[in-house]
Design brief:
Elements (H helix, E strand, L loop, with lengths): L1 E5 L6 H16 L2 E5 L2 H6 L2 E4 L5 H10 L3 H10 L4 E4 L1 H4 L4 E2 L5 E2 L6 E5 L11 E6 L1 E2 L14 E6 L1 E5 L5 E6 L3 E8 L2 E4 L7 H13 L3
Parallel strand pairs: 1-2, 1-3, 3-4, 4-14, 5-7
Antiparallel strand pairs: 5-6, 7-11, 8-10, 9-12, 12-13, 13-14
Length: 211
């Protein structure tokens, strides 16, 4: 078994790599690699797309990377389990509206827009710990409950056109999408690698997930 964390020069890959390797060693024994090699991406059993920065820059970098076509084929044709993290999750949307409208992958029915809390005293970016509200059951959420805390750093969120694709949210003077997914697609707006035991539990569940 092989899990590929895709390196397209966007995101803090070291901390994600350590967390995935830790849980692979404890739960599955699968190999975890950070890679920009399309051949590795093509044969991976699970794919992870991190992301850090602005949506347009990340979208451009991903499409320009040598891994893009291999990733799309592995996920959309071969049905390999896919996990997007932070901006990696946002790129799953149909479109992003950060700075300039930019097409996403279109794997989740939503668009990425600026967070606008109803309480003007709340700052953007939404940064720090917040408690999840689980909207739907999912195998990667096994063992989790509403009220579990995870760690966020973001100014934009995915607003859902299809509510069935939202698995969890948090309250930040209004709903903020936290987890999206359907079929073999899953996205986490927060950083599981920075979310202590809850985040590690989700990583372990993902590594064992067989849609």
């Amino acid at each position: 078994m092989l899990t590929a964390i895709i390196d397209y020069e966007s995101g803090n890959l070291h901390s994600a790599e350590k967390a995935f390797q830790k849980m692979a060693g404890e739960t599955t024994g699968t190999q975890v690699v950070v890679t920009d090699d399309p051949d590795v991406v093509a044969r991976a059993d699970h794919l992870v797309l991190p992301g850090d920065g602005a949506f347009p820059a990340c979208a451009a970098a991903l499409r320009a990377s040598g891994c893009f076509d291999a990733m799309v084929e592995a996920v959309t044709v071969k049905g390999r389990p896919f996990l997007g993290i932070c901006v990696g999750m946002q790129l799953m949307a149909r479109k992003g509206h950060e700075y300039t409208p930019t097409d996403g992958l279109g794997w989740v029915d939503g668009e990425v827009e600026k967070i606008t809390p109803a309480d003007a005293a709340l700052k953007v970016p939404h940064m720090g710990w917040n408690d999840l509200v689980l909207d739907q059951a999912h195998p990667v959420l096994d063992g989790l409950s509403s009220g579990d805390h995870v760690y966020f750093v973001h100014s934009y969120q995915m607003r859902m056109s299809n509510p069935a694709h939202r698995l969890a949210h948090v309250d930040y003077a209004g709903d903020v999408t936290a987890i999206v997914g359907h079929d073999n697609y899953l996205g986490l707006q927060f950083h599981p690698e920075k979310s202590a035991g809850i985040g590690l539990k989700m990583i372990g569940n993902f590594l064992q997930w067989k849609p």
